[in-house]
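Write out the bound-state structure for flavin mononucleotide.
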Amino acid sequence: MDDTRQIVPPAAAVSPQQAAERLALARRFPTAMDLREHARKRMPNFAFEYMDGGNGADGGIQRNWAALDAVQLVPRYGKVVKPPPSDCTLFGRAYSAPIGVAPIGGPGTAFPGAETYLAKAAQAARVPYTLGVLSGISVEDAAKIAPDVLWFQLYRFANNDHKIGLELTRRAAAAGVQALVLTMDTPIRTVRSREVKAGIVNPFKLTMRLRWDAIRSPAWLSSLARNGIPRFVSLNPYAPPNLSLEESAAFIRREQGGAFTWEEISKYRDVWKGPLVVKGVLHPADAERAVALGVDGLFVTNHGGRQIDALPTSIDATPAIRAAVGNKATIILDSGVRSGVDAARAIACGADAAFAGKSFLWSLGALGEKGPGHLIRLYTEDLRATLGQLGCANVEELRSVTTRHPGAWKTADFGT
Ligand SMILES: Cc1cc2nc3c(=O)[nH]c(=O)nc-3n(C[C@H](O)[C@H](O)[C@H](O)COP(=O)(O)O)c2cc1C
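---
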């Protein structure tokens, strides 16, 4: 075992009261989709539409779900007798499951305090938590809450020769962040019609309509009272003091934008010595290019169907990307993951881990602070059950499960 690898500690003992509470949650909300429906009822309309909506008529979201559902895994019986463990190693670090929280910008809009609650739950469960740069807690504070599992995502802040982005990279290193994620798949701003219809306008404005909407949701308001108005705290040192919400949104619009170029990825590679991950890869040639620049990991994703709804699904792009990079990169899949079975499908199709975005926000919307822990348990238990059902003694064995994957893109489909 190398020096950087930690041991996943045994799960903390659970009191009888906690066990009863967990059981009640598992009975009432046995799937991520149950949490979604409850969140829809409890959240202000703008918050639910922000966390749940995609581009177009949500066609990309629907295809993400359908493409994962279409993957079949063939069991082999007569081997595994004990419930298998779900632990895995990513970038030399041990985690309790190959399941993580994808970066979410402005999660406080969806649920005030989201970052803190997600970070706490991920740390308690020992699964990766990716703090988005557009978050309500700083990278330093996130590292205090989630010291063993913190990843950090950056968008492109290109002004003044990437002053903000490179400075944040140095801060992330000093805070002990385990992986730096550079998001490449937002070259332009696109429209999410459900947000527009819910009254979220660009440039952002805290209208009477949004205020009214919030007042009708006691759960959201009480989390706002506890956590304060969401601010982009990691960016505070670079922005003028005491900005209003509208002014800080305008500051971000001025400073952040466009997708990282390959030259810029190289620049970050020089500064960041830890595992570097590029987020937004859907073409095998881009995956090869990233690896050639020294990138260690690839997020195969279509941004959860939020950018444009014509992109390939990540599950369908993954086999060709794995074929292109072999074992030279760790592959994280996201977009559409709603169960441990989905995580197993992702790994059987070539990924090393599966992350989720929307479903973690649904969990907060439905259950507040208790939501993320419940969802991690659902995903982990479901993954373990899937391993057992398939006859896999551990996560590694998923890679050799016989798979039918009707939507998979072949390398030749990409014209390479
Ligand atoms: C509300 C919301 C905000 C997001 N913000 C970011 C972000 O700031 N940076 C980023 O790289 N990805 C962002 N994403 C995309 C997620 O990281 C992830 O790719 C996506 O949610 C995965 O698909 P899923 O939602 O179907 O699980 C966001 C997703 C959602 C739902």
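---
The mean pLDDT is 94.
Residues 21-403 form a domain with the TIM Barrel fold (CATH 3.20.20.70).
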